[in-house]
Write a structure and sequence with these properties.
Length: about 270
């Protein structure tokens, strides 16, 4: 699923143009025109509350399709179409139909990044400062947030060279404990190209905390062990890899995390 977050309408006495505009004649057939199709949720709140809203009943469901085609200058251009699904009418023999409510030109975006607060979301900002949050919910099996990086890579292909794109360097389940919480807690860890390591709640995907790699002084892995530590200022985080058939396999996974963290630190 994707969800769209926009600022409120302009106050009286002023108007604001948008980089999105209705397309009266879109073709929602992905086999003919679109390279990627997902569902979309729409929310018009302009600011996030201290307790993030994760209730699916508050979102209007939408479908999104990314169209990629040559722009006539040897480059690829992308348009993200937003569809509303209409109800079927069995009395008249009509199936579900789709109507396009707006389009988003990817070339007008100035930044694309994984949303910080929600694991399944992508945050986009256009040249007018409009923020658009997409929450993925695909029909494919597996953990939904794993599709975030795929969408970011697709959008990056058709974004302008000036667009700032934050990519996911590494992510996965780790067990974490610290000085206060001495028991291991299962967290989804995500390392991005902005040198931020964020960890999310294992049940609702809401941000629990973050580590700025610019403050990290040391990343140490124990020999032949799934455990490694991160020292950032006066804080120490102890992490352990999960899964794997053998202890040596988990140790290899821990070493992979250490390499990724050190590589991101010294970029």
């Amino acid at each position: 699923v994707l969800r769209l977050r926009e600022p409120p309408p302009a106050p009286r006495g002023g108007s604001r143009s948008r980089s999105t505009s209705p397309n009266p004649n879109p073709n929602p057939n992905p086999k003919r025109r679109f390279t990627l199709m997902s569902k979309l949720h729409l929310d018009d709140d302009d600011e996030r509350s201290a307790a993030p809203n994760t209730d699916p009943e508050t979102w209007d469901r939408r479908y999104a399709a990314l169209e990629v085609q040559p722009d006539g200058r040897g480059e690829m251009a992308g348009i993200l179409y937003i569809f509303r699904q209409g109800a079927s009418d069995p009395c008249h023999g009509t199936a579900n139909h789709f109507s396009c409510t707006e389009t988003i030109k990817v070339s007008k975006l100035v930044s694309i990044a994984p949303d910080h607060e929600f694991l399944q979301c992508i945050l986009m900002v256009d040249h007018e400062g409009m923020k658009i949050t997409l929450k993925l919910e695909t029909a494919e099996e597996g953990e939904q947030h794993l599709h975030v990086n795929r969408w970011i890579r697709m959008l990056r292909r058709v974004a302008s060279p000036q667009c700032e794109v934050t990519q996911i360097v590494k992510e996965g389940w780790l067990s974490k404990r610290g000085k206060i919480n001495t028991g291991y807690k299962r967290r989804w860890m995500r390392l991005d190209s902005d040198k931020m390591l964020r960890y999310y709640h294992d049940s609702n995907g809401v941000l629990k905390g973050e580590i700025d790699l610019n403050t990290v002084t040391e990343v140490v892995a124990e020999f032949d062990s799934p455990i490694f530590t991160i020292k950032a200022g006066d804080r120490t985080f102890t992490l352990s890899t999960q899964g794997g058939d053998t202890k040596s396999g988990r140790a290899v996974a821990a070493a992979s995390w250490v390499r990724a963290l050190d590589g991101a630190r010294f970029l």
